[in-house]
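My current task is to audit a protein record that another person submitted. My question to you is simply how this chain folds and whether the C-alpha cells agree. This is what I was given:
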Amino acid sequence: MSRRQDPTRGEGEHADVTGGWLRPAVFGVMDGLVSNFALIAGMAGGVAGGSAASGTLVLAGLAGLAAGAFSMAVGEYTSVASQAELARAELAVEQRELAESPEVEQAELVQLYVARGVEVGLAREVARQLSQNAEQALVAHAREELGVDPSDLPSPLLAAVTSFLAFVTGALVPVLPYLLGATTVLPTVLVSAAGMFVAGTIVSRVTARPWWWTGSRQLLLGGAAAALTYGVGAAVGTGLG
C-alpha cells in the first residue's frame, strides 16, 4: 500500500485535508516565530555594527510581537468576515431563486448530479426529494453551486482571536531568553531553532510528509530568513556606525 497508514485512524476514515483549527494555529505560530526571530536577528546584526544598544532587542521583539499579532488579527478578521458576507449574499440570492423558480432550480440540481456521474432517473428523484424541503434544498444548492455549508460559515471573531494568540505564542519564543536575562543572541538562536523545528513537525499532521522532513524544512527556511536579516542589520549598522 503506497499511502502511509495511521494506526489511530479507522478503516475508511480520511485526514482533514483542510487542516481544521490546527492549520491556521500552527502557521500563525510559525509566522510569529520566524518574523520576530528575523527581526531580533536583524537588530542583533545592527548591534554588531555598533548602531544600537543591546536593550533595544527586547523592545524591538516586544514591539514586533504586538504589531504582528494585531496586524494578523485584523487581517484575518477582515478576510474571514468578507468571505462570510459574500457567502451570505450568495445564499440570499439562491434562496430567492428557490422561492421564485423552484422548477428551474430543481432542474439545475438534476444537471449538477448528472454531471457528477449520477444516472438521470436517480438524479431526478434525488433532486425531487431534496426540493420538497426548502431548507434542505438550499443546503444542496449551496454545497453544489457555491461550495459552502450554510450552517458552517467561518467565524471572523474566532479566526481573529486564534490568529492573535498563535502569533503571540510564536513571537514570544525569540524574546523569552532576553526576558530571562540572556545577554547574547545565542540563546535566542537555539530556542528559536528548536521552536521552528517543532512547529514544522506539527505541520506533518496536515500533510503527507514525514515529521523530520517538515521540521527540517521549516528550520532551514526560518534560519535562512533570520541569517539574511542579520546580514542586512550588520551592513546597515556598520554603515551608520
